[in-house]
Design brief:
about 775 residues; Helix Hairpins; Glutaredoxin; six-stranded mixed sheet; 28 helices; about 40% helix; glycoprotein; transmembrane helix; DnaJ_domain_CS; membrane; DNAJC16_TRX
């Protein structure tokens, strides 16, 4: 009987708790800071601030006499405080509550969720952990999701290491490591190390992807690779674990004996060199992290001021031993290009210092990545960058000219001008394009501007070559002054091939270092018997061996098909010659989409689909030609428009003006201000207009056209003196025929620049009320 009463009493208490908490939760759930401010969950801080200012003025009790104004103003202020605080906003987004929205606050006097239906007082049960509502708010800003890890953390791990904790809601051991974790994270964050927290209960997929099968677990990610922490969780071990994640040989120890060898290696490595002077015997972790972040740009060295072997270095550079000092050296190994000294050297200061000294004064272009950073593609008119490129050689005979070019680059203070050089032997495809029709022997100086990512450039060679004399310097400076005033002096255009990677020979060394790191990981895993974490690596090794063995077997027993491939290529080449001309001869190593240009004839059959009913936003670029000029103009047309074939909105066609001259005249009536046919007044009535070489950009949907008129820029062979003799007439006729062919070929010389303006949308447009019908035009005989 007593037991029954006790059970009834406990059930009554439980019911009262449930009813009280339901009422509290309902009152809490009514408050939604997003609804109060009227913003979405993805609203930025600027949007929230703007809305708050407007609502605060509207509902301020001194201005609004509404009885609910005071309560509304409090809600608005409270909502603004929650949404402008990252921790409170994150906890509200994840759990629907914050410190302020919780019914009885935080701590041991509050109520926490138990599953999703019951609530208990933690002061009675003393549970410091629970599910959603009890998750540590400090970890919420580090929470990782699968997509975030793949798209953000892995790419960023090539610049800085990440320390990730694997936890769960009902993890007893996680409680013991929490104080140490918080203290370590607080210190590592100031060094720039990424922090992440994965809750197994909500991100099981990510935990499995990382290979974490127990909680708590701590792991590190660097260069996309995962390494597990196997030691006792203390701050010293965690700091050492992060330091061990970094690759070896990031920082070289420098003394009086090897300092010249270290500094003079700038020419071989093509990098600036940085020296850090400090009194501690080991390299500071902050400096190692900086070396890892900028390993592709700068070579780092460390000088221990406490050693007697570094005394000469300290005297040579007058180093203050009471504060860490950082020197950056470029081409001059005797004088530092920049210096920084501070007792509390912070990460932001070091990053800014290194970022301002990432490149040499005149670096050698050794790969495409460096070319893209030194000579970026033009984006806006005010962000133009001109690259002054010296094409030279490695021999001793070029040393004088190279030193003169470097001295000119050292004196440059204009950020618009970038100086660089290449070795012709190592970058032969690039030099062949820039030195065509010129004296191909280095040294030569070329001024260029990159126009697009497909390799299009405008350039101008400096006449007379480069020997480093005062006359050469004066001539180059004059050209640069003219360039600042008139960018149109870059009157040559070309498509550059992708640069050769001169450091590919170092691949074997990098592979050996990588193999060493993998072997170290395998030995470490064997020592800790972590077979489950080793399975991906073992699977990769056996898969590679299987593929290698299978490849050898297939090559041994398969018939050779190398003899058939040349025949197939010959057949395809013959078909190409018989069909429409393409740009197989175009010297571009990076074709946009195809290795040919597809050009269709504009006839009464294709007229409707290629023009009248062309899709919105699409443009048909039409070349006007005749039967006699068809082959010459189509070949030149294909070469000029080849770099634009990657665009999905451009189509290419040609129109035979011998058949459709009346259609041309009807269309060009709407572009009369652009029509200036070069004919004499007395010949206007007797001779028809010559439309050969005209190019029309037709937008069928918006009914407008852009017009390109041919401009002859080639040599005039008729102006050359003729030789006297019996064969003068035949030679004269041959010269005229060659002159006519050459003039037709050069009609499209400026088409590439016109296409650029077409893509930029800066060409004048001539609107056509209605497209004339092509089928109604009679054929001219």
């Amino acid at each position: 009987m007593v037991m029954m009463r006790m059970v009834v009493f406990l059930l009554s208490v439980m019911m009262v708790y449930v009813l009280l908490m339901d009422a509290t939760v309902e009152s809490t759930a009514e408050f939604d800071p997003y609804k109060v401010l009227g913003v979405t969950r993805s609203a930025s801080q600027a949007e929230i601030k703007k809305v708050y200012k407007r609502l605060a003025k509207e509902w301020h009790p001194d201005k609004n006499k509404n009885p609910e104004a005071e309560d509304m103003f409090i809600k608005i202020t409270k909502s603004y405080e929650i949404l402008t605080n990252e921790e409170k906003r994150a906890s509200y987004d994840h759990y629907g509550q914050t410190d302020n929205t919780h019914p009885y606050g935080r701590g041991h006097h509050g109520f926490r969720h138990f599953h999703d239906n019951f609530y208990f007082d933690e002061s009675f049960f003393h549970f410091p952990f629970n599910n959603k509502g009890g998750r540590d708010f400090a970890d919420s800003k580090y929470t990782l999701h699968f997509n975030q890890y793949v798209n953000e953390v892995v790419p960023d791990s090539f610049k800085r290491p990440y320390l990730i904790k694997i936890t769960s809601d009902w993890c007893f051991s996680c409680i013991h490591i929490e104080p140490i974790w918080k203290e370590t994270v607080q210190e590592l964050e100031t060094l720039g190390i990424g922090i992440g927290v994965v809750d197994v209960g909500y991100e099981r997929r990510l935990a499995n992807h990382l290979g974490a099968h127990q909680t708590p677990s701590i792991l590190g990610v660097v260069n996309g690779k995962v390494a597990f922490f196997h030691y006792a969780v203390v701050k010293g071990h965690l700091m050492q674990f992060v330091e061990d994640l970094l690759p070896q040989r990031l920082v070289e120890k420098v003394t009086d004996k090897n300092n010249q060898e270290f500094l003079k290696s700038w020419h071989e490595l093509n990098k600036p060199h940085v020296l850090l002077f400090d009194q501690v015997p080991s390299v500071p972790l902050l400096y190692k992290l900086t070396a890892f972040a900028y390993k592709d740009y700068v070579q780092f060295g460390y000088v221990d001021q406490g050693l007697s072997e570094t005394a000469d270095l300290l005297r040579k550079f007058n180093i203050n031993t009471y504060a860490p000092t950082m020197l950056v050296f470029k081409e001059d190994v005797e004088k530092p290009a920049d210096i920084i000294q501070a007792k509390g050297m912070k990460k932001q200061i070091i990053d800014e210092f290194i970022s301002n000294n990432k490149f040499l004064l005149a670096p050698r272009l050794v790969n495409q990545k460096l070319f893209d950073e030194i000579c970026p593609v033009k984006q806006f008119h005010r962000r133009r960058k001109y690259c002054i490129l010296l094409i030279t050689g490695e021999e001793e005979s070029f040393a004088t000219g190279n030193e003169a070019f470097l001295s000119l680059a050292s004196a440059n203070t204009n950020d618009v001008l970038r100086f660089a050089y290449v070795y012709q032997r190592r970058q032969q495809p690039l030099c062949d394009v820039l030195l065509k029709n010129k004296d191909g022997t280095p040294p030569q100086v070329v001024i260029l501007e990159r126009r697009n990512g497909a390799g299009k450039i405008l350039y101008k060679p400096v006449l007379g070559g480069w020997n480093g004399s005062k006359e050469d310097k004066h001539k180059l400076l004059e050209e640069l002054e003219r360039l600042q005033k008139d960018p149109s002096i870059l009157n040559n255009d070309a498509v550059l091939p992708e640069l050769n990677n001169e450091f590919t020979s170092m691949f074997l060394i990098k592979w050996i270092y990588t193999a060493y790191d993998y072997l170290s990981e395998i030995i470490d895993d064997l020592l800790h018997n972590n077979w489950r974490e080793m399975m991906p690596l073992l699977s990769l090794i056996f898969s590679a061996l299987f593929i290698l063995f299978g490849t050898v077997v297939i090559q041994a027993f398969s018939d050779s098909s190398e003899e058939k491939q040349p025949k197939m290529k010959a057949k395809e080449a013959s078909k190409t010659e018989n069909g429409s001309p393409n740009t197989s001869s175009t010297s571009s190593s990076r074709p946009p989409k195809k290795n040919f240009v597809e050009v269709t004839e504009l006839t009464d059959i294709t007229y409707t689909s290629n023009l009248v009913k062309l899709r919105p936003g699409h443009i048909n670029v039409v070349l006007v030609l005749t039967d006699s000029t068809k082959n010459i103009l189509l070949s030149k047309f294909a070469k000029e428009v080849y770099s634009f074939t990657g665009s999905l909105t451009l189509h290419f066609s040609f129109l035979n003006v011998d058949k459709h001259s009346e259609w041309m005249a009807a269309v060009l009536e709407y572009a009369q201000d652009a029509m200036q046919i070069d004919t004499d007044e007395d010949e206007v009535g007797s001779r028809k207009a010559d439309y050969t070489g005209y190019v029309l950009a037709l937008n069928g949907h918006k009914k407008y056209l852009c017009l390109f008129k041919p401009v002859y820029t080639g040599e005039d062979l008729d102006s050359k003196p003729e030789e006297e003799g019996g064969g003068s007439r035949s030679r004269k006729g041959l010269t005229r025929s060659r002159s006519t062919t050459l003039q037709i070929h050069h009609k499209l010389d400026r088409l590439g620049l016109w296409m650029e303006r077409l893509m930029e949308g800066t060409l004048p447009r001539y609107y056509v009320p209605a497209w004339p019908g092509l089928d109604k035009i009679t054929v001219n005989k």
